[in-house]
Design goal:
This protein is mainly alpha-helical. The protein has one domain (about 5-55). The chain has helices spanning about 5-15, 20-30, 35-50; strands spanning about 15-20, 55. About 10% of the residues are buried. The mean pLDDT is about 90.
Length: about 60
């Protein structure tokens, strides 16, 4: 299993987020054990999605 930083780096490098990536991030977020820096990383993915800088693919 990839760690959070590796997954987010892959997402921003490819400018795509897969359904698997989404599930992984949602699972990590739901654990409520994220550090403030991890939450910032997740926020950056959300913002990029909201701004249309990432594309969701299957």
């Amino acid at each position: 299993m990839m760690n959070l930083e590796t997954t987010i780096e892959k997402i921003f490098t490819t400018r795509r987020i897969t359904r698997h990536d989404q599930q992984l991030l949602m699972c990590l977020f739901s654990q409520n054990s994220l550090s403030p820096s991890d939450k910032d990383l997740l926020d950056s993915v959300y913002e990029a999605l909201h701004q249309g800088r990432l594309r969701v693919v299957d």
